[in-house]
Amino acid sequence: MKHLLIGIIAIVLISCNPQNKTNMSEQSKKVGTIELVIFDTYPQYSKTEVIAAAKAVNPVAEKFDGYIGRKLAVDKNGKWTDIVYWTDLKSAEHAAQEILKSETCQKFFGMINQETMQFMHLEPVIDVK
User: Fold this and answer.
1) 22-41, pLDDT tens digit by residue?
2) Which of 21, 58, 103, 104 is 20 to 30 A distant from 4 in Cα terms?
3) Range from 22-26, 31-35, 57-61, 77-81 carrying the lowest mean pLDDT
4) What's the pLDDT score for residue 28?
5) Which residues contact 46 (CB under 8 A, 6 or more apart)?
6) pLDDT band, residue 8 (cuts 50/70/90)
């Protein structure tokens, strides 16, 4: 009986461990598609303005099925890279179409010089952490 009680306590402690929950969450949200957008913004927008507008997109993007996360980066010449992680291509494509309809996102999209934009969905083939 004592061994059974110890076993039950051990199972409860393992299942309540936040690290195990994080690992389970990460496994259930494995990156299946990477959305990559490389672009310049129009010169009248400052880096601070672009970042603020891009941050406003996050709550909208987070509502789409399959969304995992996002990284926005800029190089020393002002070339931006927006990387969005999705569980699958279907979710990424659906979100890409629907997010264009969002008034909240229009400010950010309006800052992007469309002539310089490269947009693609990529399949990850190596994932090193």
Assistant:
1) 444 544 689 999 999 999 99
2) 21
3) 22-26
4) 62
5) none
6) very low
81: left (phi over 0), alpha (psi -120 to 50) or beta: beta
Sorted by sequence, the CB contacts under 8 Å of residue 14 that are 6+ apart come out as 20
d(CA 35, CA 30): 14
Please report the pLDDT score of residue 43 as a whole number.
97
Q: How far apart are CA 50 and CA 55, in angstroms?
A: 9
Q: Which tokens hold the place of 63? A: 């509502």
Q: Look at the chain and count its residues.
A: 129
Alpha helix locations (H) across the chain? 2-16, 18-28, 47-61, 89-99, 103-111
Average of per-residue pLDDT across 75-101: 97
Q: What is the DSSP string of 9-43?
A: HHHHHHHH-HHHHHHHHHHHT---EEEEEEEEB-T
CA atoms within 13 A on the CB side of 72: 16
